[in-house]
């Protein structure tokens, strides 16, 4: 898989992402729905899912709104900050999107599973 995606590029299938990132398909599906809701990707029935054209300003505005509008744990914000700082020091990393999305999905899946375990 080519880890460098440009606006308009088709994303791999849910099944492929699930296997590649070692997470459940339902987690991939939920993440894709969330990304579509906020405009990062778009889905065309019968064709697939495509990366939207977001400029840096739109992306930072989106991230800022997310952090301000929701009750975040300090460790989540700190972790998010580390990811952004790492990206800024690592300019030109073709693998950035897939690596970070995979890490984020694994993090939230673990948190969700731990929450389910404590609710039982």
TrEMBL record:
Domain HTH gntR-type intervals: 1-54
Keyword check for DNA-binding: yes
Name of one Pfam family that matches: GntR
GO molecular function terms noted in the UniProt entry: DNA binding; DNA-binding transcription factor activity
CDD domains, sorted: WHTH_GntR (cd07377)
InterPro entries: Tscrpt_reg_HTH_GntR, WH-like_DNA-bd_sf, WH_DNA-bd_sf
Top-rank lineage group of the source organism: Bacteria
Alphabetical UniProt keywords: DNA-binding, Transcription, Transcription regulation
SUPFAM superfamilies: Winged helix' DNA-binding domain
Keyword Transcription regulation: yes
Name the UniProt record assigns to this protein: FadR family transcriptional regulator
């Amino acid at each position: 898989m080519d880890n460098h995606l440009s606006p308009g590029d088709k994303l791999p299938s849910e099944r492929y992402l699930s296997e590649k990132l070692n997470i459940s398909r339902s987690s991939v599906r939920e993440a894709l729905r969330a990304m579509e809701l906020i405009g990062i990707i778009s889905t065309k029935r019968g064709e697939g899912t495509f990366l939207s054209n977001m400029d840096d300003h739109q992306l930072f505005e989106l991230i800022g709104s997310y952090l301000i509008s929701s009750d975040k744990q300090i460790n989540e914000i700190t972790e998010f900050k580390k990811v952004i700082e790492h990206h800024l020091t690592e300019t030109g990393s073709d693998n950035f999107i897939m690596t970070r999305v995979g890490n984020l999905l694994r993090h939230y899946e673990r948190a969700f599973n731990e929450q389910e375990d404590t609710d039982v």
